Amino acid sequence: MKLYYSSGACSLSPHIVLEESGFTYETERVDFATGNTETGADYRTINPSGYVPALMLDDGQILTEGPAIVQYLADRVPEKRLAPSAGSMERYRLQEWLNFISTELHKGFGALFNPQAPDAWKNIVKAQLARRFDHVSNRLDGKVWLMGDDFTVADAYLFTVLGWGQYVAVDLAPWPNLVDYQGRVASRPAVQAVLNAEGLTG
């Protein structure tokens, strides 16, 4: 398999899951400024939407959208317990989290990265994000991971999105549960390996 990624983008989530899963895989960086991959390929010929992540499967198929990719990977290694079994109520709870992170957090942060967004709008978005952080912090209270005792693909995604705060002046200090959670995820050996590989440490 090959993951097409951009350093620190939402593709960090499937990158973490690939490493946690123990797969043998390749990565290829995408340069959004040129639209090309590091080998010079036009990325839109791989993913017409033009954004990451994209996962090339061993049979040549391309799978896109982070929540779909991470569930595909988790289902290939059920012994890693990165996702509850398909059809179980816990699996729907996982999907509930993946959808919340995607629509309520990921998209919110996206607006803060837009250089054309006026400051007044960014302040509104930050206030909305703060309410979402309240929710996540409350749900994490007394838990190690989002789903309880098992690290899952939802944790890889939440870690990725919360990490963007440092780039857009969103301070997580008012939510110590989130700060502690980020530290727990970051300390995992697989996560450290991926952060190093993407040049996100130091």
Automatic annotation (TrEMBL):
Q: EC number(s) per UniProt?
A: 2.5.1.18
- Record keyword Zinc-finger present: no
The record's listing under SUPFAM superfamilies reads:
GST C-terminal domain-like, Thioredoxin-like
At the top of the EC hierarchy, this enzyme's class is transferase
Residue ranges of every copy of the GST C-terminal domain listed in the record? 87-202
Q: Which PANTHER family match?
A: GLUTATHIONE S-TRANSFERASE GSTA (PTHR44051:SF8), GLUTATHIONE S-TRANSFERASE-RELATED (PTHR44051)
Name of the protein this chain belongs to: Glutathione transferase GstA
Q: Which organism is it from?
A: Candidatus Methylospira mobilis
Q: Which gene does this sequence derive from? A: gstA
